[in-house]
Amino acid sequence: MIVEADGGSRGNPGHAGYGALVRDPGTGAILAEKAEYIGKASNNVAEYSGLVAALEMAHEIDPDCWILAKMDSKLVVEQMSGRWKIKHEDMQKLAAKARGIVNPRRVKYEWIPRELNKDADRLSNEAMDAGMAGIPWVHKGGLALRGGVAYVDGGGEAAATGPAGTPEAQAPDAQPAEALAPEAPAAAGALHHTELWVRDFAEAEASLGWLLERLGYLRAEHWKTGAKWQGADSYIVVESGPDVLDAGHDRRRPGLNHLAFRAGSKADVDLLTRRAASHGWTLLFADRHPHAGGGEHYAAYLENSAGFEVELVAEESGPA
Predict the structure, then answer these.
(1) Which of 31, 132, 148, 201 has the least CB density, counted as fewest CB within 10 Å?
(2) What pLDDT was estimated at residue 156?
(3) 317 half-sphere exposure, CB direction, 13 A CA radius
(4) Which CATH superfamily includes the segment(s) 193-313?
(5) By 3-state DSSP, what share of the chain in percent is helix, strand and coil, each rounded to 5?
(6) Where are the domains of the chain?
(7) pTM here?
């Protein structure tokens, strides 16, 4: 599936909005469009917001799709491809959110010149025009919106209809950013972050760091003896230093046994497990793989040379 996104800011930072769309890869027909005013923000934040919206629409239409994301923002394309670092905190969070929507291994990014991104550019300008006028964005083709999305040519038809096949949304429901309720804080008890102390950071970085980035975490900070990887809702710190005792980690001792990560489909788990072998990971319970956690639980249990264990869980798995 092809997605296109663009964002703009009149003032940078100033009144900002984005446009996003999904195309059928065979016909090039637009399946879904969305435009949203996001209030005062930078151009780069608007670009990332457009990417997030585009990935969400594609995932809504086909959760198992592979995606080619086309944008005229060189910054976003290079950062999401892993070639450039993301230093700005707001963009780190949006990038992590984007990676949490669709398995990063299923998304390829491609830079395109602005003249080939006219549809997304048009939508972003429509969003800014509407927001600055204090009115909701309305699809120019007159299509009703569901969740702010206009589905075209049958795209998202199942999601846009009720049990009897009757459209649930008959009128636009998009609103200017100022009219939206503020985002609710994270629920009490939600995991804020995890900190792992290791004896050899370079060794841990080669295995744990590699794995975290394959799972969609972004390296947000780095210092001589450690680093922070940012996820969509929490972050993980891996750190060494003078306070770390000179003793090996043993998952069988009281304390932390292992970390378990959602890793996508069964095929994604299998692919990541094969690749992990060349990055310092050994498959545990090989005689019972991939059902070492139970007959309905599809997962890979891996251990690195320092004794840290991780579990890669397929989304289709039932409870362990």
Answers:
(1) 132
(2) 53
(3) 27
(4) 2,3-Dihydroxybiphenyl 1,2-Dioxygenase, domain 1 (3.10.180.10)
(5) 30, 25, 40
(6) 2-178, 193-313
(7) 0.57
Residue 185 has pLDDT above 90, yes or no: no
- Determine the pLDDT at residue 233: 77
Report the run of H or E that residue 75 belongs to, with start and end. helix 74-80
Q: Determine the distance from the C-alpha atom of residue 145 to the mean position of all C-alpha atoms in its chain, rounded to a whole number.
A: 24
Looking at 3.20.20.70, 3.40.367.20, 3.30.565.10, 3.30.420.10, the CATH number of the domain 2-178 comes to 3.30.420.10
Closest CA to 146 of 127, 130, 161, 131: 161
The pLDDT value recorded for residue 213 is 87
> pLDDT higher for 92 or 315?
92
Asked whether the predicted pLDDT for residue 83 surpasses 90, the reply is no
Q: Quick one: average pLDDT of 234-242?
A: 91
Any long-range contacts for 86-92 (C-beta under 8 Å, 24+ apart)? 86/218, 86/220, 88/44, 89/220, 90/42, 90/45, 91/44, 91/45, 91/48, 92/218, 92/220, 92/230
Locus of tokens 């629409």 = 57
How many angstroms separate the Cα of 170 from the Cα of each of 62, 93, 127, 148? 23, 33, 20, 12
